[in-house]
Amino acid sequence: KATMCTVYQCFGPFGEHTVNASWVAVQELKKLGLGSEVDLHVSEVPVEYQTVQRLVPSLWKQYCPLVVVHVGVSGMATTVTLEKCGRNHGYKGLDNSSFCPDSQCCIVGGPDCIDSVIDMESVCKRVTASGLGVAVSVSKDAGRYLCDFTYYTSLYLSHGRSAFIHVPPLGKPYSGEDLGRALQAIVREMLELLDQAEEKIHCQQHLH
């Protein structure tokens, strides 16, 4: 059966990141592909809260994807980092338009934290065991800036069927090609886990 995955690049250039490693990595992933059974859609988004608030819902509405995987760069990261959850409050940093939400939160009245339905620890272990040559880790804090804001918004809309991957800047230590290979391996594992979960639910419904 055909599955669908939208990989949605969170950020364009911002601050010191005149070339955003996450966009380079996603472009490399697009070249590699995810196999004939996966419909892969890629887009780049400016570092702006209001743009995110508009585009994330339209993405889910337009594609009705199995999962959306957001990718962003972190200047502090030295590994490819799988984010377990998004957080609703604490957004005080100004975006590229010098804007910050008055509420300093993603969704007014939303829960403080939303976890992805994807088991990031399992994805990390599987990818590490595959001998990819790119270090992968798991995090519980996506940083309270546009990455975290985007992730929480997407998790809220999708009831947890989203993921966020932070990549380090280019050359610190990985090339764009390395990061693209890592994204390919990670997203394949995510899709495999989601597929297994769907089959389990289907079997349980059939038994009842």
TrEMBL record:
Question: Listed GO molecular functions?
Answer: pyroglutamyl-peptidase activity
Q: What EC number is given for this enzyme?
A: 3.4.19.3
Can you tell me which residues form the catalytic site?
83, 147
Q: State where it is primarily located.
A: cytoplasm
In its UniProt record, which GO terms are filed under biological process?
Answer: proteolysis
Question: Where does this polypeptide localize?
Answer: Cytoplasm
The residues forming a coiled coil are 180-207
UniProt keyword annotation of Coiled coil present: yes
Which Pfam families has this protein been placed in?
Peptidase_C15
CDD domains attached here? Peptidase_C15
Give UniProt keywords alphabetically: Coiled coil, Cytoplasm, Hydrolase, Protease, Thiol protease
What PROSITE patterns is this protein classified in?
PYRASE_CYS, PYRASE_GLU
Source species, domain of life: Eukaryota
Please give the catalytic activity noted in the UniProt record.
Release of an N-terminal pyroglutamyl group from a polypeptide, the second amino acid generally not being Pro
Any single Gene Ontology cellular-component annotation: cytosol
As for family, the record states: Belongs to the peptidase C15 family.
Instruction: Give the record's subunit note.
Output: Monomer.
Describe its function: Removes 5-oxoproline from various penultimate amino acid residues except L-proline.
Q: What is this protein called?
A: Pyroglutamyl-peptidase I
Give the source species.
Mola mola
